[in-house]
Write a structure and sequence with these properties.
Layout (H helix, E strand, L loop, with lengths): L2 E7 L12 E7 L7 E10 L3 H5 L20 E8 L9 E4 L6 E5 L6 E3 L16 H14 L6 E5 L4 H12 L3 E6 L2 H9 L5 E4 L6 H11 L4 E6 L4 H6 L3 E9 L17 H5 L3 E4 L9 H13 L7 E5 L4 H8 L7 E5 L2
Parallel strand pairs: 8-9, 8-11, 9-10, 11-12, 12-13, 14-15
Antiparallel strand pairs: 1-2, 3-4, 3-6, 3-15, 4-5, 5-7
This protein binds NADP nicotinamide-adenine-dinucleotide phosphate (NAP).
Length: about 350
């Protein structure tokens, strides 16, 4: 059996996460038992939620256990199988974690899913046609529930979730505005992702000046805001919301390394009769088939062209993950393993 390199959570961060929180180890894989499948991972997904799991604090999910392989989404290929449900060569998506191979119990419902790579590249099943894409779909369709002609705004606009949001929002006839960090990301948002406008939040020192820029980009106000960031960005968006606006509260990445993300003027929630709802996409498995069907169609027809930042080799995962938390990624952050 092959040697498997793995990255474990070695210790928990205090404040900012660092590469010293992780440990690279290697182990020989055991022989397969009945119903087990050996998968070689081609790509590992790096996602902001992993930062929350590194802490041992109140959360919607159990913390990542110390000394265990970091959890994470993977796509790859079946190498060997002692299950009649999977065969060598099958392309599969699963939660293989930060390691080169995984052994999966094929009797566990949903642990491994075969995917078709005829029209959609394997890696996109970790991004636009995977969890981040479905996340965009849920917040847009089930929380914001937009009408054609409305103005929708999304932060972290060029990331995995934000870019899928743009394609889904444009498909519903909405004016779609992004907020992203830096001129390159904003130009890409408009020229490649189909945003009608994009505001570079890094140009502004405070919420009031950012708010003025958002108002210029959204002359009819904001009917639906898809929140990925929190902090100054949220405080800048609040005064731009129209009456009866909605916020799909998806993430607050500005606070994941422990910085506070205060809301400066909560009374604006009342003034705009705001609906604000947080959600966790894995708690809504019933909508995944419908969302994946639409996202797969958008990618297969070229209406959504997902961009990826790919780090090479398992050992590069910790550094790439820390970069994701600082906006160094451009589009979906992956690690190439196979
Ligand atoms: N609720 C759920 O079920 C669920 C599921 C998946 C993801 N999420 C959330 O969705 C959000 C986007 O996830 P993603 O996978 O698509 O990541 P991503 O957007 O591909 O990457 C993260 C981006 O966040 C921005 N960012 C990082 N630190 C920031 C800061 N301090 N202030 C402002 N922006 C910052 C950066 O973009 P800029 O360079 O443009 O700033 C960075 O590229 C995250 O908040 C994540 O936790 C939630």
């Amino acid at each position: 059996m092959p040697i498997n390199h793995q990255i474990l959570l070695d210790n928990r961060p205090t404040g900012e996460a660092s590469t010293s929180n992780f440990k690279l180890v290697k182990n020989e894989l055991p022989e397969l038992k009945a119903n087990q499948v050996l998968v070689r991972h081609d790509f590992l997904s790096l996602d902001p939620y992993m930062r929350g799991r590194m802490n041992d604090s109140k959360s919607y999910a159990v913390p990542q256990a110390l000394g265990q392989v970091m959890g994470g989404g993977t796509v790859g290929q079946v190498l060997d199988s002692r299950s009649d449900k999977f065969h060598p060569g099958d392309k599969v998506v699963g939660m293989g974690g930060w390691q080169e191979y995984s052994i999966v119990d094929a009797t566990q419902v949903g642990a491994l899913r075969k995917v078709d790579t005829t029209h959609v590249a394997l890696s996109h099943y970790l991004g636009a046609v995977g969890m981040p894409g479905v996340t965009a779909w849920y917040g847009l369709v089930k929380i914001i529930d937009p009408k054609a002609g409305q103005t929708l705004l999304v932060s972290a606009a060029t990331g995995a979730v934000g870019s899928a949001f743009a394609a889904l929002s444009k498909a519903r006839g909405c004016r779609t505005v992004g907020i992203a960090g830096g001129p390159e990301k904003c130009a890409y948002a408009v020229n490649e992702l189909g945003f009608d406008a994009c505001v570079d939040y890094k140009l502004y020192q405070d919420a009031a000046s950012l708010s003025a820029a958002i108002k210029l980009a959204c002359p009819d106000g904001v009917d639906g805001y898809y929140e990925n960031v929190g902090s100054m960005v949220l405080n800048a968006v609040m005064p731009c919301l129209n009456a009866f606006a909605s916020i799909a509260l998806c993430g607050m990445i500005a606070g994941y390394d422990g910085k506070p993300v205060p809301m400066s003027n909560p009374s604006l929630m009342l003034l705009s009769r705001l609906k604000i709802q947080g959600f966790i996409v894995s708690e809504h498995m019933d909508i995944w088939p419908e969302a994946l069907a639409e996202l797969g169609q958008l990618v297969a027809t070229g209406k959504l062209k997902p961009r990826e930042t790919v780090a090479m080799g398992l050992a590069s995962a910790p550094e790439a993950f820390l970069g994701l938390l600082k906006g160094k990624n451009f589009g979906k952050q992956l690690v190439k393993l196979g």
